[in-house]
Amino acid sequence: MPSMSRRTLLRSMAVGGAAVSVPGLLTACSSDSGDGDVSNAGKKLAPWPAHRPATGPKPDLAPTGAGVQAGYTSYPSDLVKSVSRTPGDGSTVRVMTVSFGTPPKPASANRFWAAVEKALGVKIEYTIISQADYQKKMATVMAGDADALPDIINMFAGFTLPREAQFVQRRAEDLTPYLSGDAISDYPNLANIPTHAWRDMGRIGGRIYGIPLERPLPGSTLWINQDMFADSGMKEGWSAEDFTAVARRGTRGKTYMLGAANLSLFGNAFHSAAHNAPQRWAVTKDGTFLTAAADERYKASIAFQAQLRKNGSYHPDATSISQIDLTTLYYNGTVGSMQDGFGAYLPKYRESRGKMNPAAALPYSVGGEPGGVVAARRSFGYTVLKKAKKERVQLLLRILDYLAAPFGSEEWELVHYGVEGVHFTRGKDGSPEPTPLGEVENNTNLPLKYLAEGPQVLFVPGMPDAVRALHTWQRKVVPHAIRDASFGLQSATNNSQGATLKTFLDDTVTGIVAGRLPLSEWDAAVKKWRSRGGDRMAEEYAKDYAANT
């Protein structure tokens, strides 16, 4: 049985993004005080930053305007320099981010930390919050004294923090004068961040307060053991009936074709998208917001999953197992598939090498209609700055500009791999390969990548065939990606009650698929959800959507 460290598993989760459904990130203040200040309705909207793509190594596989990523089958041989001067002034900068890694060695004994400090020209005081403690720690930070705030704060996308937008508007620097329109040209790497990331981050009260962490278009993905599925009859262009047959054929003994983790609703994101159901919210041509919960296609996906569970295709612990433990079962062949973020491709391919062949599943068709895939929020959180004098804000933005260096640059290599000969060596194709020290001192344990990051590309060191396969998959599915229409919009009700209401619906889905509740319970649950706040959310999203368009 292949073994895998907890650190590697946590890193896999961090790269993959949201493997389970979570509320949106940029929400309005609670309805107790109204959303007039943070809503975009009735406000003059700041123009998005002018997008100026960086020049760098030409990709081997071309991107598309629809959202297919640039692919690199080998590491660039000639790295560009994206920053002309050291951004810092020798001062100390306090930063805070979420972390999915293990605590780093202290700065005094950490050569990766020291190398980044030298390149940035500042001393970094780093407060690192584990993902498990993030909500609790952020609640304390948000309620604390303004002067005690770190200079740079990562607002993680995985949770809805109560009154988050109100906190940002009150305590964070308004970055509109520095980043809106052509003003961003002072920070070329930040100007390289595509507009879709800024849009999905969203404005607050019409203003720009953060810097988004750009992510690919594909979201929750069904990662399959390609050999297991192929041996069980998987074929391109498969139907829902074919999927059911493959799942039943490959499940035998203590091997299950379908794995799922606690809170993932039996992988409902993949199945609801295959049924072409809206992903949380859809918007009509006249600007009306419609909830996915009331769509018959969403209900049909729940019924389909309930049948898959009834015929024994799911692992029996699908409602209780953790994502970490499910990843272990996936790698050792106990389960033939698992839902995870698309960004999990890097650890999926690297950690499974020589053990099994991972692949992103193509959606099945339903009733002859090609299935869709989940479109991710294009901003995996965002970064805000503590209010400060102009010169200090500019210094902090220069630091973030350095960290946002594009793939194929010297700065990107330093931030992602450290120092050559210390933290990595070169593979046959020139790709960085971590040394034992690089496995400990890196940007997972010192998560600089959650402060700022350039646009992501498709690249798996030393595995060009994996890059080609992922690029081909994206070309097939990106035209069928289903986007949540509420991304980047404000809703006071979602902020104050959204998490509770979402849990209510999610528990109903899980109960039906698990066989504890009849499918007939769904309509009653949706009716209750709408009366308790769902309809108000629809009205608020429609209002903000109209303001943004």
TrEMBL record:
Residue ranges of the region described as Disordered: 31-66
Pfam family, one: SBP_bac_1
Gene3D superfamilies: Periplasmic binding protein-like II (3.40.190.10)
Bilayer-spanning residue ranges: none
Superkingdom, natural source: Bacteria
InterPro entries associated with the record: SBP, TAT_signal
Name the UniProt record assigns to this protein: Sugar ABC transporter substrate-binding protein
